[in-house]
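Summary for the steering committee. The consortium agreed at its last meeting that each partner would contribute one worked example illustrating the joint modelling workflow. Our contribution is presented below. We chose a case with several input lines so that the handling of multiple components could be demonstrated. No manual editing was applied between input and output; the record is shown as generated.
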Amino acid sequence: MLTLYTYWRSSAAYRVRIALALKGLDATQIPVHLLKDGGQQRAEPYKALNPAQLVPTLQHDALTLNQSLAIIEYLDAVYPQQPLLPKDPATAAVVRALALDIACDIHPLNNLRVLQYLTSTLGVSEQQKTDWIQHWLRQGFAALEQRLALTAGQYCVGDQVTLADLCLVPQVYNALRFAVDLTPYPQIQKVYQHCLLLPAFSNAAPEQQPDAQN
Amino acid sequence: MLTLYTYWRSSAAYRVRIALALKGLDATQIPVHLLKDGGQQRAEPYKALNPAQLVPTLQHDALTLNQSLAIIEYLDAVYPQQPLLPKDPATAAVVRALALDIACDIHPLNNLRVLQYLTSTLGVSEQQKTDWIQHWLRQGFAALEQRLALTAGQYCVGDQVTLADLCLVPQVYNALRFAVDLTPYPQIQKVYQHCLLLPAFSNAAPEQQPDAQN
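What follows is the complete predicted structure of the assembly.
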């Protein structure tokens, strides 16, 4: 029995939704609205489930897990169909490094709570906030583009979908949302386009979620 | 043949130094000074090795790897002595989640380049910078403390050293450096103290490195 606590626009939840879909797993999805009521993630019952007050959280029977990459590695070990990490340790390391380039070096800086701190506590302007978002996306994508030139085939690492692609696609979604020009990143664009041809990726997109708002 | 590009105060490099020591591996350490010459990580030859211009980078024969957690998982697969991840997928996931709680939710926000952006581009004051650092450390540690209450023995998860401890100790080092009061976090303090009893941890500390400055 799998339950995913999710928010349509959370790119970390988006990663897990892709993994579930690729592996053909059904999970009950419980939306946690990150803005409504001052943020439902900050209130009970969710706070008790995940004291970091972030999404996603996955429950599998008695196990409660946070952190999208830990969740995906767990799903990959327990449901080995459509593996998301190569068997060879060196190639697996390259995949994990690309995933972490996004999950550690780009995503955390543009997370909702950070943007809220910038505006509420530091009083930065809307323009400064946009500059901040674009700065970290551009800096991260510039490095990623160079790495993908060495590793990519149809996907981030060769021609198999891996954990790296599950991180890339939600991050590109964010970049487009924040009007980052992708012209300097042809490798990133190419992989993104290939991934979106797969229903597991396109169906996991924010706008396809039951809790999506327009 | 192992080569580690490192900086004494980088907590990501510190994690890898602990892993190497626990596994009894000798690596040639090449210091990359993050402040001198405008940051040696931003210049050749290092920039070609790691386009993200961050430390650490590990070279193992022909393989060049970035991202401390990917490096440690790789070392753990190739050098299985003193394993850093439990075999059971559920326990391994708990370990990885704790490691990522630090590596994704705390560390990236207080990284040098982010602090430089806050002061240089946004013009925040020294006090605002300190508040920022302490805010993310406290928020992260509060969540971590609750998780460790459920998982910790002598170490973060039971009585074996894992990847989670390799992330915790450098983060506590940073917290002490930035004068965060650890009184509210007895579990974190207990694990930190246990880890420092092991020479692999104490010898990997920033002040013990050849490139340390006082």
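Chain A has nine helices and four strands. The interface with chain B takes residues 51-54, 63, 65-67, 69-71, 73-74, 77-78, 89-90, 92-94, 96-97, 99-101, 103-105, 107-109, 114, 117, 121-122, 124, 128, 131-132, 135, 140, 142-143, 146-147 of chain A (CB under 8 Å).
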